[in-house]
Amino acid sequence: MKIWKMFSIFSIILILLFQAGCSDSSSTGEEDGVVTLKFWDMHTDAEKAFFEELVKEYNAANEDKVKIEYTAFNQSDYSNTKLPVAFANDEGPDVFMVSPGDFTKYAESNILADLNSYFPEGAKEDFLPASIEAVTYDDKVLALPYELELLGLYYNKKMLADAGVEVPKTWDELKAAAEKLTTTDVAGLVLPTDKAAYLNFIWYPFLWQQGGNVLNEDGTKSTFNSPEVAKALDYWGSFFQDGQAPSKLQYGPWDAGNLGTGSAAMSIVGTWLIPVLEKDYADTEFGLAPIPVPEGGKPATDAGGWKMAVNANSEHVDEAAKFIMWCFAEDKSRPLKWATEVKFAYSPRISVVEEGKAIYDKGLRKVFTEEIYDSAIPEPRFGPEIVDAVGEAMQQVMFGNVSGADAAEEAHKKIEEALSK
Amino acid sequence: MRRKGMKRKLNESLTAYGFLLPNLLGLTVFVFVPMVYAFYVSLHDWNALSPKVFIGFENYKEMASDKEWWKSVNRTFIFTVIYVPLLFAGSLFFAVMLNSMKQRFVGVARTMFLLPFAITSVISAVIWMFLYDPRHGFINQFFDLLGLPKQQFLGSTDQALFAIIVVIFWINLGYNMMIFLASIKEIPLDYYEAAKIDGATGWKAFWNITFPLLRPTSIFILVVTTIGSFQVFDQIMVMTKGGPANSTMVSVLYIYKQGFEFLNMGYASALAVVLFLIIFVLSLAQLRLYTKKD
Predict the structure, then answer these.
(1) What does A298-322 look like in DSSP terms, one character per residue?
(2) Could you say which residues form the signal peptide (chain A) (predicted)?
(3) What CATH class does B67-291 carry?
(4) Local confidence pLDDT in tens for the 421 residues of chain A
């Protein structure tokens, strides 16, 4: 009989556990008139701390009205698992961060709330028109841009000097420099290797420099079978075929480790690298230049960056939208702190960049401000199928012995198919 | 008297089911319900964000002409055909070796073989990424020392799948070897003594006594390993994400891509249902094939 007693106790515990697990833990709601909002993102370290601080400040200022609960997840979990699963179960966060790669997916599914009416008087005009355009869908502003991350060519000054290599300005010079700088221990040029939105992100400037693009002006037709695409693919792929760009990396392609540890002489990376190089690798001298251009081409770089968005299905769209406007569209101090102290990026707000002029001219930042900023094109927000088709074409050229023209033709068909859906 | 007997019997089966209950509950909630639900979802067009739209068997029709999917299935078959025999032969070989070793060393050797199995799959994948690194990896440094040319491993379309097979082999070898070792220990020594008198030792004894008597264990390992190799995912996800140029894009990875990157949940579910059927048929066929002779 003892067994029975134990068994029934065990069963009861089990049932209770299941109930607890299955019950709707509705943290979104009102308690004593205080609205609780879920805020999710994918930041780490100092960036996460910045948002923790912001949330604390906002909660304190609106104590009897709004309470924000902030949670940060690992980036790949966040984009590929956390958000889709939460939205699928109607448990999505009220406020969240969205990447350009995911923007269209969410916009098409009516997940993003229109923020147009929440901008404080005159605030929208302070944003760069291109940055607002990048988050406008069907005349609705569906997210709030808060940073522009630009790309440039970073290099190790000593390695270039030792090899007698000038800072490359053209495609041919970059290719020659990469060849000269490649040794058994040092990669001439580090570029991303794995298929992901980041791979395309770094490649787009090579396409834009020649005036090429993935889609036509109004985004209805593929222009991927153009000679410009083939040329950009072949040029990019040649670094991998000739062994000047490693086929596998120990650090992420966006990581300062590649240059910092001396295992790479050059790398195309974004603005975020500057504070890390200054802080963690202060002993080595690094240089920065615009991405080299092909003959007859014009300079181009990406302006990437996450955006802040409000869940259109939230019960408290008003409160959520007010919070994100407070974060980045009102006072200049918060966006300035984010873009200059926490990380290095450009604020999409003209007044903020002016306010931080002194910082934007410091060290390598000056190169971005004076030589690269004007050539920035917002990161495209293609749907995942187009991103995949472009990435696949790149992979085929990099590793599959396929010519740029053939890979482009194959991807062109897939993009047309994705657009016709 | 009779009533008492019946009561005891009832009591016994209640206890038995009682002990099974937690497991059954878990299986129902985490396996059977999701399986049925996956089939339900596979009949819909659903991107996880907007409501499901019923489309019947459209997803299955689309699948028929999805070249990338069938390529991934083909790749999974290649993986299985290489990996399963390799693991089977490898674990049997080391089990026999260990069995004939001095007792003192067996404990240490067993632990060493089993260690990789105790490491989280993601961590072992990361360890091997360092070993495989084309520029600074240990394996290439070693090759260099021997005067062999450096290899690209995970960065090469020809080598990546094999490089991954080696990793998964390394992880699972010890566990399967332990199962074989346990079965070998069950074989009565009398058989070997009798065989010795008849003049059968070494290879002959293995072939005529050990191997046939291991039959049930062998079947178990073959079937389970085949199922496992059709479900391979985490190591590949960490090491190559299906690349380079899709050369390691196996079925489960493709399903993941459709489901969580493209958010084609309905289509991904249909793919999962078909993969389940493939594994199911294959396992049945294997069981039929191996047990036929008895």
Answers:
(1) ---EEEE--EEEEBTT-TTHHHHHH
(2) 1-20
(3) mainly alpha
(4) 455 666 666 666 655 555 554 444 444 455 568 899 999 999 988 899 999 999 999 999 998 899 999 999 987 788 878 888 898 888 899 999 998 888 988 888 889 999 999 999 889 999 988 899 889 998 999 999 999 999 999 999 999 999 999 999 999 999 999 999 999 889 999 999 988 889 999 999 999 999 999 999 888 999 999 999 999 999 999 999 999 999 988 888 999 999 999 999 999 999 999 988 998 999 999 999 999 999 999 999 999 899 999 999 999 999 999 999 999 999 999 999 999 888 899 999 999 999 998 889 888 999 999 999 989 999 998 888 899 999 999 999 999 999 999 999 999 999 999 998 7
CB within 8 Å: A7 and B134: no
> Comparing C-alpha atoms, which of A260, A148, A245, A129 is closest to residue A187?
A245
Burial class (CB in 10 A: 0-12, 13-18, 19+), B5: exposed
Tokens of A339: 């873009």
Spatial distance between the Cα atoms of A350 and A69, rounded to a whole number of angstroms:
30
The pTM for the full model equals 0.84
Distances from the Cα of A365 to the Cα of A159, A286, A303, angstroms: 21, 12, 15
CA-based diameter of chain B, in Å? Answer: 84
Measured distance CA(A381)–CA(A367) in Å, rounded: 27
Phi, psi (deg, nearest 5) at residue A293: -110, 155
Distance of alpha carbon A411 from alpha carbon B129, whole angstroms: 30
Cis peptide before B244 (omega within 30 of 0): yes
CA A250 to chain centroid, in Å, comes to: 21
Orientation angle between helical segments B215-230 and B67-99, nearest 10 degrees: 150
- Nearest CB to A395: which of B29, B130, B246? B246
Task: Give the containing element (helix H, strand E) for B168.
Answer: helix B160-186
A residues 385..404 contacting B (CB < 8 A): 385, 388, 392, 395-396, 398-400
What is the torsional sign of CA A148, A154, A157, A161? negative
Choose the mutation target among A102, A399, A403 for the interface with B, i.e. most B CBs under 10 Å.
A399
Q: Does A248 touch chain B (CB under 8 A)?
A: yes
Task: Give the domains, in start order, of chain A with CATH numbers.
Answer: 29-148+305-369 (3.40.190.10), 150-302+383-420 (3.40.190.10)
Tell me the chain B residues in contact with residue A14 when contact means C-beta distances shorter than 8 Å. Answer: 22, 25
State phi, psi for A62 to the nearest 5 degrees: -120, 40
Cα(B267)–Cα(B283) distance, rounded to whole angstroms?
24
CB burial of residue B67 (10 Å; 0-12, 13-18, 19+): exposed
- Structural domain boundaries in chain B: 67-291
> At how many degrees (to 10) do helices A227-241 and A384-399 cross?
50
